[in-house]
Design goal:
The protein is an alpha/beta fold and 452 residues long. 24% of the residues lie in helices and 38% in strands. It is globular and about 70 Å long.
Length: 452
């Protein structure tokens, strides 16, 4: 293997395998040989141009000399300060992932409803070993995805959410992931969500980093299995500093009659790559995937989606919007696949982009692969600037130019925000997007503390 960023991590794994294995349950250890074989076959992480379009280079993102927390050191942080990002008017069941270690709040476990398990993989190996064994690694693609294979190779522990059959959570579960380390760090994060038949849950995932002057890289893999007639909502919000990079993969499998909503918001950060891979295996499923990016400065944000329809009579919608200013760069690549036999499928994909400066850049590539005739599918993408006629009209009515521009950009993002079913979160995002579009840091430090 040539001298690449991948090589350093494979050598780290081989030299520290005993330490890695000692901190990992059997369900994690058994995945490592497959992950190592996949990485050795690939040879290196993808560079710009390797993935068929303009995506940020994973090779470059993993190249810096990040530290990996093999000894599972839990760096201290002021958790009350961390939770200032809480969403007003929304009572959540709250936990924190500090760098790569899960720390539940004091009352979380006692307030979880009966039939809901939220615990580390190490705890799950004792409490519900069959769930961890049967589902971990069952959805994520290691053979074809180097970032997922590397996450699996270096994974020591993760977090399991298991919702039993028929259980419906009234309150959302909020997980705050925070970087706060005194050195450059690579955090390996893993979340496994198993929704049994007829269950329902909502997840709010907040991704933050403290401004310590150090560079951080988060490697995140989420696997979700949504059982028959189950419902799962996942809302992600990234508010990080410019030294923080993020590589996230969300894999989901839907069974008959299930409903899945995913909304990803990138408000601030350095370099971000989000991939959403959803297999609609069951019949009569509903899938809604949305995202928005507010990019300023030199921020770079990629989103890529793959929605594969295998079942019949299913409906999916994708909506992604970007507002890019200064020298910010964005990329969107979306793919809808409709297999033979997936009759009566309705699948729609939309990407809209607004460039608010001459230096901003956007690359978009929507795609359809349809192998069934009896379907309704469409895709579309547009990239442009603010509507000058609308701007002129507003200015002629006495609205200052800056305020008029802000109002138009807010209106542009409105339908993505409206896909969120949590009223408090929807209102909060409107405020944060407004601040970000004004050029301010979108850190909600003025939120009141409302953890339960």
């Amino acid at each position: 293997m040539k001298d690449t960023s991948l090589r350093q991590y494979i050598e780290l794994y081989r030299s520290q395998r005993e330490i890695l294995d000692a901190a990992s349950p059997e369900a994690v250890r058994r995945l490592r040989p497959r992950a190592l074989s996949a990485l050795e076959a690939l040879g290196r992480l993808p560079r710009k141009g390797d993935e068929g379009y303009v995506r940020t280079s994973l090779e470059d993102m993993f190249a810096p000399d990040f530290g990996v927390n093999l000894q599972r050191i839990c760096f201290e942080a002021d958790l009350a300060e961390t939770f200032r990002c809480d969403v007003p008017k929304v009572s959540t069941l709250l936990g924190v992932i500090l760098n790569d270690i899960y720390r539940p709040t004091a009352t979380l476990q006692v307030q979880l409803p009966e039939g809901v398990t939220l615990c580390t993989f190490a705890e799950a190996a004792v409490r519900c070993p069959e769930v961890l064994r049967d589902y971990l690694g069952s959805v994520a693609d290691m053979a074809g995805d180097a970032a997922t294979a590397l996450n699996t190779l270096l994974l020591q522990d993760g977090l399991l959410l298991h919702v039993s059959e028929g259980v419906k959570l009234d309150r959302p579960i909020q997980l705050v992931s925070l970087f706060n380390a005194p050195l450059p760090m690579l955090a390996i994060r893993r979340l496994l969500v198993v929704m049994e038949p007829d269950s329902e849950a909502r997840l709010l995932l907040c991704d933050h980093s403290r401004d310590t002057g150090h560079s951080y890289l988060g490697s995140q893999v989420i696997e979700a299995v949504v059982g028959r007639n189950a419902g799962l909502d996942i809302y992600e919000i990234e508010e990080a500093n410019t030294l923080t990079s993020r590589v996230s993969r969300l894999y989901a499998r839907q069974l008959d009659g299930s409903r899945l909503t995913v909304n990803g918001t990138t408000l601030s950060g350095g370099v971000t790559r989000n991939d959403y891979i959803i297999d609609v295996d069951g019949d009569r499923c509903d899938t809604r995937l949305a995202g928005m990016v507010t990019g300023i400065g030199g921020q770079s944000s990629d989103n890529a989606t793959v929605v594969r329809h295998h079942g019949s009579h299913c409906h999916s919608e994708q909506l992604f919007k970007y507002v890019l200013s200064d020298e910010a760069a964005g990329a969107f690549e979306g793919l809808i696949v409709v297999d033979e036999g997936a009759v009566k499928t309705e699948a729609f994909q939309t990407n809209r982009n607004l460039l608010a400066s001459s230096g901003a850049r956007m690359h978009t590539r929507p795609q359809l692969l349809i192998y069934c005739d009896d379907v309704k599918c469409s895709h579309g993408a547009t990239t442009g600037q603010l509507d000058e006629r609308a701007l002129f009209y507003m200015r002629s009515r006495g609205i200052p130019e800056g305020e008029a521009r802000l109002m138009l950009m807010q209106a542009f993002m409105a339908d993505v925000i409206d896909t969120i079913t949590l009223d408090g979160l929807r209102d909060r995002l409107r405020h944060l997007v407004e601040r970000r579009l004004c050029g301010s840091d979108a850190i909600c430090g003025d939120c009141g503390l409302k953890k339960q």
